[in-house]
Amino acid sequence: MAKEKLSKSQGVMHVQIEGPIDLRKQILNTAISSAEILKHYEVIREIKHRKKQYQEKLNEVLAEINELKAVLEDSLPEVKDLEHKKPKYTAPMTPLPKPKEEKQKLEKRSFKKQRSPHRSPLEKEIESMRRKLELL
Question: Which residue in 114, 133, 135, 117 sits closest to 125, CA to CA?
Fold first, then answer.
């Protein structure tokens, strides 16, 4: 498979590889896959970070709501026990289903929000590796 040639003057070893273009294509494909996985990992990490921020904000808001609820309960006058009547059961109104066209518009609109107009350096690197692969 590989033939070894030893250069006596520099002490450098050269190896001849059979099918170097195929090997280079495989290496570039692997590099592209690795870069895409890294990009997805960074997106997931950012989502987890935002989730944590939202959870902290939600906890703050809930604590404030509980404080306000306690203040409201303290400020309300006490009412003597009156005969509690059960209200009549009324069936909840169900919302009308949206037409499919509106759902599709909403899906398209949400997709556009996810796209960023600027490409990250990682995406640029993936594109350059793909262009190199096409040139082989």
Answer: 133
From CA 121, how far away is CA 127, in angstroms rounded? 10
- List, in order, residues 6 or more apart from 49 with CB less than 8 Å away: none
Q: How far apart are CA 134 and CA 112, in angstroms?
A: 29
Domains of the chain: total: 1
Range of the domain at 45: 38-75+122-136
Does pTM surpass 0.85?
A: no
Query: Is 61 part of a structural domain of the chain?
Result: yes
What tens digit of pLDDT does each residue of 67-114 get?
Answer: 999 999 999 888 776 666 677 777 777 776 666 665 566 555 554 445
105 within some domain:
no
Q: Tell me, what amino acid is at 21?
A: I
Element (H, E) at 14: strand 13-16
CB-based contact 123:32 (threshold 8 Å): no
Report the SS3 class of residue 19: coil
Contact 26, 109 (CB under 8 A): no
Q: What are phi and psi of 55, to 5 degrees?
A: -65, -40
Q: Which two tokens stand for residue 136?
A: 């082989």
